[in-house]
Design goal:
It contains seven helices and nine strands. It has 210 residues and is an alpha/beta fold. It folds into two domains: 11-125, Rossmann fold (3-Layer(aba) Sandwich), CATH 3.40.50; 132-207. Helix 6 (180-186) links the parallel strand 8 and strand 9. Helix 2 (75-85) packs parallel to helix 3 (103-111) and helix 5 packs parallel to helix 6. The protein starts with 10 loop residues before the first strand and ends with a helix. It has helices at 54-62, 75-85, 103-111, 132-140, 151-163, 180-186, 202-207; strands at 11-15, 28-31, 49-51, 68-70, 93-98, 116-126, 145-148, 174-177, 193-196.
Length: 210
C-alpha cells in the first residue's frame, strides 16, 4: 500500500500453564484470541474449535487443529456462531481466554443454555515504555496513522503516549480503532481523527488507510 509500518508491541503475552478439562468432557473449544491457541495441548486438537476471527482461526490451523470455524467478528458474533453450531445438551464448552477477558461471552452462552468452562490461559502484561521506534515516529510529526487492534492496546497506547509527553503529537495523527471500545479508549488524546473499522479484523483496519 506504500506505507512504512512501525511495529510497536504494547503488551507482552505470558502463558499461565492453566490446567484444562479432559478433552473427553468437552464438546468444543472457544478461542477469543490467537494468543490462547499456543496454550492448548495436543490432546485437545481433535476437538472442534470456534475462533472469534480469521487470524485466530489461522493460528489454530497452524497449531494442528483441523475442525475450525471462524466467527469473523467479535464476541457477539462468536456467541451466535456457537449457538447455531453446538447443542446445549451435548456437553460443556471450553472457553480459553486472557485475564479479564471472555466473561461476557461466557454469560451470553450460559444465558442460551450452554455449560461453559472458562479458563484463563494467558495474561497480557503492559509494556513499561513506548517502543523507541514509536516514540521517534510521533516526535517526527511524519506519522500518518496509528492502528490499535484491541481496546487494551488502545488504553496502553494512550497511557504510554502521555507518559512520554507525546499527547500533543497525536493532533497530526489519525487513530484507527478495531472497534467501538478501542475508539472510546482513544478519546483521551487529541487525535486528528478517530476512525473505527467496519468489522473487527485486519482487512477492515487496512481499508481505513485507503
Amino acid at each position: 500500500m506504500g506505507y512504512r509500518p512501525i511495529v510497536a508491541p504494547l503488551l507482552e503475552i505470558r502463558t499461565l500453564g492453566t490446567p484444562l478439562s479432559l478433552p473427553a468432557r468437552i464438546q468444543a473449544i472457544l478461542a477469543t484470541s490467537g494468543s490462547a491457541v499456543p496454550c492448548l495441548p495436543a490432546s485437545h486438537r481433535h476437538l472442534p474449535l470456534y475462533a472469534v476471527g480469521n487470524a485466530t482461526a489461522a493460528r489454530a490451523r497452524a497449531a494442528g487443529f483441523s475442525r475450525i470455524d471462524s466467527a469473523d467478528g467479535d464476541a457477539g458474533a462468536l456467541a451466535a456462531l456457537v449457538a447455531r453450531c453446538c447443542d446445549p445438551h451435548a456437553g460443556p464448552l471450553l472457553l480459553v481466554s486472557g485475564r479479564d477477558q471472555g466473561m461476557s461471552l461466557a454469560a451470553d452462552l450460559r444465558g442460551r443454555g450452554f455449560a461453559v468452562i472458562r479458563r484463563v490461559v494467558y495474561a497480557a502484561v503492559p509494556a513499561a515504555v513506548l517502543p523507541d521506534a514509536a516514540r521517534a515516529a510521533f516526535r517526527s510529526a511524519e506519522l500518518s496513522a496509528a492502528l490499535f487492534f484491541s481496546a487494551e492496546t488502545a488504553r496502553q497506547g494512550v497511557r504510554l503516549l502521555k507518559a512520554a509527553r507525546l499527547a500533543e503529537a497525536a493532533r497530526s495523527v489519525d487513530a484507527l480503532a478495531i472497534g467501538p471500545p478501542s475508539a472510546v479508549a482513544l478519546q483521551a488524546l487529541p487525535w486528528r481523527r478517530i476512525l473505527v473499522a467496519a468489522r473487527p479484523n485486519q482487512d477492515a483496519m487496512l481499508a481505513l488507510l485507503r
